[in-house]
Design brief:
The chain has 334 residues and is of the alpha/beta class. It folds into 2 domains: 188 residues, Glucose-6-phosphate isomerase like protein, domain 1 (Rossmann fold, 3-Layer(aba) Sandwich), CATH 3.40.50; 120 residues, Roll (CBS-domain), CATH 3.10.580. 45% of the residues lie in helices and 15% in strands. It contains 16 helices and 12 strands. The strands form 3 sheets. The chain has a 5-stranded parallel sheet. A 4-stranded mixed sheet has the order 6-7-8-9. β4, α7 and β5 form a beta-alpha-beta unit. α4 runs parallel beside α8. The longest helix has 28 residues. The radius of gyration is 30 Å and the shape is elongated.
C-alpha cells in the first residue's frame, strides 16, 4: 500500500493527538528557556570574561546528548570569531588531552555534573591552569565545584512524558551556548565582513559579498559626457552591453544616466542629431562599493520602476564601477 494511502487512512484522532504532543513538547521547552533567561545573572558575564580572555581556543566537551550539543556550540563559536573545537571526553583520556594546551579555555557540559568521563579532562585543566566553565543543572555536582564558573540550568521538566529523555535540558544547553557565542562576538566587535571571511561558501557567503567584489570596473564602465552626440552614444551603449550609459561632468562626477527607456521616450527623426545631455535622466540611482550585494539587490527593487543596473560611485559620486542584476544572479544573490 502506498505511503500516502496509509497517511490518508489514519484516524483524525491520531493526527490531533500528534499535534497535542508536539505543542506540549514545544511549550515545555519554551518554558525552560524562559526560566533560563530569568535565571541569568552576573555569573554569565564572568563566564564570558573567562572565555574572552583566553589566548587560545575554546575547547567544548560533553558526553552523550550533551556531547552532541557541545559539538554544535563549538561550531557556532568558531563561525562567529571565537576559535573553538570539540573534544570527546572519553577520547581525551586516551591521548586527545594533547589537543588541549596552555592558553585554551574549556567549556564542559553535563546536566548531572557527575559524568565520569570528564574527570581526566577536568584534572588536565587544573594541572595546566586552564579556565574551566561548566554548564550543569546541579550546583553541588563535582563539575560545578571544579569549574571556575558554573552556569546552572534552572529546574525544568523534560518534554519526554517519562521525564527521562534529554529534551528541555539539551534545549537549554544549546540556547545557553548560543548566548555565550553572541555575547562573545558582540564583545569582540565581530562584523558582517568578519563573518564573510569565514563563511565564503553557501548562501550566507553570497549574501555577504560586497558590491566591489562583483562590479565591472575600468574600461567596462559605459561613460559619456553631456555633449556626446547621440550617434556616438548609441555605438558605445551597444559595445558595453549594459543597456545604459553613465553621464559624467567635466569633474568626473556622475550627473545623469541614459537608458533604453530614455531613448524610447525621445525617439523621433532628429534623435541622432541631439546631445546626450538633452535626453538623459538626472540624479540616477547609485550605490557605494562597500555596500553588500544584498543591499544592491534591494536598491534595484526599491521603487515601482525597478532598475537592472546601478552605477557604483564613491562619496564624491565619481563612478568606480557598474553593477548589473545578472552579476548578482551569477554569484547566487538574486
Amino acid at each position: 500500500m502506498p505511503h500516502d494511502a496509509i497517511l490518508v487512512d489514519r484516524p483524525m484522532t491520531e493526527a490531533v493527538c500528534d499535534l497535542d504532543v508536539a505543542r506540549r513538547v514545544l511549550t515545555t521547552e519554551a518554558a525552560g528557556l524562559h526560566a533560563l533567561a530569568d535565571s541569568l545573572d552576573g555569573t554569565f558575564a564572568r563566564a564570558v570574561e573567562f572565555l574572552d580572555v583566553s589566548n587560545g581556543r575554546i575547547v567544548v566537551t560533553g558526553m552523550g546528548k550533551s556531547g552532541h550539543v557541545a559539538r554544535k556550540i563549538a561550531a557556532t563559536l568558531a563561525s562567529t570569531g571565537a576559535p573553538s573545537l570539540f573534544v570527546h571526553p572519553a577520547e581525551a583520556s586516551h591521548g586527545d588531552l594533547g589537543m588541549i594546551v596552555p592558553g585554551d579555555a574549556v567549556l564542559a557540559l553535563s546536566n548531572s555534573g557527575e559524568t565520569a568521563e570528564l574527570a581526566d579532562l577536568v584534572e588536565h585543566c587544573h594541572r595546566f591552569g586552564l579556565p574551566l566553565v561548566a554548564i550543569t543543572a546541579r550546583a553541588g555536582s563535582a563539575l560545578a565545584k571544579a569549574a571556575n564558573v558554573a552556569l546552572l540550568l534552572p529546574p525544568a521538566a523534560e518534554a519526554c512524558p517519562m521525564g527521562l529523555a534529554p529534551t528541555t535540558s539539551t534545549t537549554m544547553q544549546m540556547a545557553l551556548g548560543d548566548a555565550l557565542a553572541v555575547a562573545l562576538l558582540t564583545r569582540r566587535g565581530f562584523t558582517a565582513q568578519d563573518f564573510r571571511q569565514i563563511h565564503p561558501g553557501g548562501r550566507l557567503g553570497q549574501r555577504l559579498r560586497r558590491v566591489r567584489d562583483v562590479m565591472h570596473t575600468g574600461d567596462a564602465i559605459p561613460l559619456v559626457t553631456p555633449d556626446t552626440g547621440m550617434d556616438r552614444a548609441l555605438v558605445i551603449m551597444t559595445e558595453k552591453r549594459f543597456g545604459c550609459l553613465g553621464v559624467i561632468g567635466a569633474d568626473g562626477v556622475l550627473i545623469g544616466i541614459l537608458t533604453d527607456g530614455d531613448l524610447r521616450r525621445a525617439m523621433d527623426p532628429g534623435l541622432l542629431t541631439r546631445k546626450v545631455g538633452e535626453i538623459m535622466t538626472h540624479d540616477p540611482r547609485t550605490i557605494g562599493p562597500d555596500a553588500l550585494a544584498d543591499e544592491a539587490l534591494r536598491a534595484m527593487n526599491a521603487y515601482e520602476r525597478r532598475v537592472t543596473t546601478l552605477f557604483v560611485v564613491d562619496q564624491a559620486r565619481v563612478p568606480q564601477g557598474i553593477l548589473h542584476v545578472h552579476d548578482l544572479l551569477r554569484v547566487g544573490q538574486a
